[in-house]
Amino acid sequence: MLSEAGLPVVEATSFVSPKWVPQMADHAEVLKGIQKFPGINYPVLTPNFKGYQAAVAAGAKEVAIFGAASELFTRKNINCSIDESLQRFDEILKAAQAASIPVRGYVSCVLGCPYEGKISPAKVAEVAKKLYSMGCYEISLGDTIGVGTPGIMRDMLSAVMHEVPVAALAVHCHDTYGQALANTLMALQMGVSVVDSSVAGLGGCPYAQGASGNLATEDLVYMLTGLGVHTGVNLQKLLEAGAFICQALNRKTSSKVAQATCKL
Amino acid sequence: MGNVPSAVKHCLSYQQLLREHLWIGDSVAGALDPAQESSQLSGLPEYVKIVEVGPRDGLQNEKVIVPTDKKIEFINQLSQTGLSVIEVTSFVSSRWIPQMADHTEVMKGIRQYPGIRYPVLTPNLQGFHRAVAAGATEISVFGAASESFSKKNINCSIEESMERFEEVVKSARHMNIPARGYVSCALGCPCEGSVTPQKVTEVSKRLYGMGCYEISLGDTIGVGTPGSMKKLLESVMKEIPPRALAVHCHDTYGQALANILTALQMGINVVDSAVSGLGGCPYAKGASGNVATEDLIYMLNGLGLNTGVNLYKVMEAGDFICKAVNKTTNSKVAQASFSA
């Protein structure tokens, strides 16, 4: 349904151990089972080389790896330093390059960390630069806990844009504090033209129970359409996909556009 | 995103995170942490006046009728947050808006703190006289940029409504009572669809010309986006100085904060909001209404802008009123903070 809505990139699944993320246990079946529309990319997360190999075997044509701008977050999450975590991805990048598989790099905690608090823009720029020079074609800068506000977004992007060309940057804003769209607008004003979002604003926040998570794709598309920015996305079909997955999850949508339009 | 385990231990509690690291907590007028200055965007106003419309615009769109004493308690709590303007009630016929039937008792019952303004809506001369008799020292009048909306809402044309408001504003000026003007449907109308910036400018100019000290431009159904906000303000600012303008954004389509940011970037420094994002939308059942004051303050604090408002105290008032109307908050900041 998401493919039919005109989205050019749909992150399909994560080749992570089901011990960590049970929801993604069926990664191979999902990737093999989906209809791959021409012109649409279906990247998958590959947290380690084993995951990468499994992804390729399942037909993956694009993969994603991730670092964090916070040492403490990295240590708590995967029990190593940022540098060590990036070294682990070396193997993946070499193999992906040999197989002509593009790799996207994520940087989490770019506007704040649940452990360290404030994160310096210089640190974000350092990690982004490393991922970019390792061979990632695009770096997605994630406000993982949604604490950022437009000024902080601007400071962070200013620092990163000294090291990575803006055309290779994306923003991934969480809406935990309702700031996602304002932060995304700031990023657009600075020249960023790739934005991550999740239909229906799926996903909560593991750090604040009950809080919301991703920016809702419907609300993002609404804003971009109003701004006259071309996305190629059909909002109506997107709303249908959102309604479908909310029903499957037995939850209400987090998208305000969906809330407003469904009842009219 | 990423490989986040489902159980996370040992991270900072959210209250700690917000207080110590992210510029939230008591905001002291004029005292900006030098470390915050770097996060200030250039071209933004230094101070933003928040006009709290929860007790009026918020409650009037809530189904549950809040008892008078709770309304009074709510407003008294808001008075202690640092907010400088709190819209108390509306002197409208209870036939139209049952929630505002106790306007006189509420106006008389609240504690009016020095330095805080307590405007009330007065749709006509009768309402104005009642408001003054009840102790009101500031009033608001409500126009629309759409003929169909005007006819549907107040049963008369825009021109007729302006004539009515002239009477009210004239009487107010005689008594040295400031009058604020609202223009609804500034970015779109539930009946007509799109509304031209020129029409909004015309109505705004009329209200400003008759003596309203400030014009609040309302995106009544929340359909605006930063592009339409920019076009609107470019038009209105040709006729009315930015210091006399305010924006009143509804969050029906999640666009409110992005629209407000745009307005701030254009020099507007008065923003209306409602604690907890009170009030739904009478035109889209189930949809949200006003932008939440908490989420607005969060953004303004992060931008290093001075508001004089204490976010925690606002969240407490929000918690109080949500219990009174028996609903969960529409503020994302409150959702994230209270459930931590």
Automatic annotation (TrEMBL), chain A:
Name of the encoding gene: HMGCL
Residue ranges of every copy of the Pyruvate carboxyltransferase domain listed in the record: 1-239
Highest classification ranks of the organism: Eukaryota, Metazoa, Chordata, Craniata, Vertebrata
Family: Belongs to the HMG-CoA lyase family.
Entry-linked NCBIfam families: PRK05692.1
GO MF annotations in UniProt: lyase activity
A Pfam entry, by short name: HMGL-like
Pathway involvement of the protein, from the record: Metabolic intermediate metabolism; (S)-3-hydroxy-3-methylglutaryl-CoA degradation; acetoacetate from (S)-3-hydroxy-3-methylglutaryl-CoA: step 1/1
Protein name according to UniProt: Hydroxymethylglutaryl-CoA lyase, mitochondrial
Function statement: Mitochondrial 3-hydroxy-3-methylglutaryl-CoA lyase that catalyzes a cation-dependent cleavage of (S)-3-hydroxy-3-methylglutaryl-CoA into acetyl-CoA and acetoacetate, a key step in ketogenesis. Terminal step in leucine catabolism. Ketone bodies (beta-hydroxybutyrate, acetoacetate and acetone) are essential as an alternative source of energy to glucose, as lipid precursors and as regulators of metabolism.
InterPro entries listed in its UniProt record: Aldolase_TIM, HMG_CoA_lyase_AS, HMGL, PYR_CT
Keywords noted in UniProt: Acetylation, Disulfide bond, Lipid metabolism, Lyase, Metal-binding, Mitochondrion, Peroxisome
Catalytic activity: (3S)-3-hydroxy-3-methylglutaryl-CoA = acetoacetate + acetyl-CoA
Gene3D superfamilies per UniProt: Aldolase class I
Quaternary structure, from the entry: Homodimer; disulfide-linked. Can also form homotetramers.
Automatic annotation (TrEMBL), chain B:
Single GO BP term: L-leucine catabolic process
Catalytic activity: (3S)-3-hydroxy-3-methylglutaryl-CoA = acetoacetate + acetyl-CoA
GO molecular function: hydroxymethylglutaryl-CoA lyase activity; metal ion binding
UniProt cross-references to Pfam families, sorted A to Z: HMGL-like
UniProt xrefs under SUPFAM superfamilies: Aldolase (SSF51569)
Annotated metabolic or biological route of this protein: Metabolic intermediate metabolism; (S)-3-hydroxy-3-methylglutaryl-CoA degradation; acetoacetate from (S)-3-hydroxy-3-methylglutaryl-CoA: step 1/1
GO CC terms: cytosol; endoplasmic reticulum
Domain Pyruvate carboxyltransferase: residue ranges: 48-315
Entry keyword set: Lyase, Metal-binding
Top enzyme class: lyase
EC number per UniProt: 4.1.3.4
The family this protein is said to belong to: Belongs to the HMG-CoA lyase family.
NCBIfam families documented for this protein: PRK05692.1
Protein name, UniProt field: hydroxymethylglutaryl-CoA lyase
